[in-house]
Amino acid sequence: MKKQQILPFAASLVALHFGASAVSLADEHSPLKDAGFELQLPADEGGWTVFEISLYSKNYAKTGSQSMFNGGFSRTVPFQATFTGNASGAFQEFEAAAGSRWRLTGYGLTPATLEGTSAFGILQVSFFDADGKDLGTVETADGKTKAKTSDELNRKSAAGEWIMLDTGVATAPEGTATIQAFTLFVDYSGSNRTQGVYFDDLSLCELSEGEDSCD
Predict the structure, then answer these.
(1) Residue 139 lies in a domain
(2) 214 lies in a domain?
(3) What is the DSSP code (8-state) at residue 77?
């Protein structure tokens, strides 16, 4: 089944296409499998589906010995007012029902200060119907499709520090069949360098009505 992931930018949206199957819950607290990236489970065993320049890394880890690195190379295109870059990431998918409430948290680190205003790392949740259509969230304004994202790790973020990232509460809209939880690095900065973000210790929780915290 084809799915379309929508990645929010400052002024535009970029669509990526992947195939993924919903996987069962790992435990009652967080459905994520290998949330600390130590096991390197393949996607067909419920692990992470990675795309573009994404890989397990031993370079940095908040806990354990590994993290997930999402990176890319963004170069200036001569004689054009545009840049070439990429969006790299990893995701898992789970069954979800309309009206269910979710929150994704984790940590991100960049070894050096990110260059460019269009280079950033985020966590993201997206909802899809049974046909793979991206539904956005109930919190989306004016009916425009937009995933629920965390605060950014960007050029203003401290380098060499693990920074907590939090999507806040995302409510599944009518027609929801699945939720996808992402780590993402987007770089269309034209910085002419390779850079990226490491992610570790993620947690995805389904909240009861009136709850805002995963604790």
Answers:
(1) yes
(2) no
(3) P
Whether 88 is in a domain gets the answer yes
Residue pLDDT tens, the chain, 215 long: 345 444 443 323 333 334 434 433 344 578 999 999 999 999 999 999 999 999 999 999 999 999 999 998 887 766 666 667 788 999 999 999 999 999 999 999 999 999 988 899 999 999 999 999 999 887 765 666 678 999 999 999 999 999 999 999 999 999 999 999 999 999 988 777 889 999 999 999 998 887 777 76
DSSP state of 153: B
Q: Quick check: 110 and 157 in contact, CB under 8 A?
A: yes
Question: pTM of this prediction?
Answer: 0.83
Full residue range of the structural domain in which residue 113 is found: 2-207
Kindly state whether residue 84 falls inside one of the protein's structural domains.
Answer: yes
Question: Could you tell me whether strands 178-187 and 49-51 are parallel, antiparallel, or unpaired per DSSP bridges?
Answer: unpaired
Which ranges constitute the DSSP H helices of the chain? none
Distance CA 3, CA 131 (A): 8
Q: What is the CATH number of the domain that holds 55?
A: 2.60.120.260
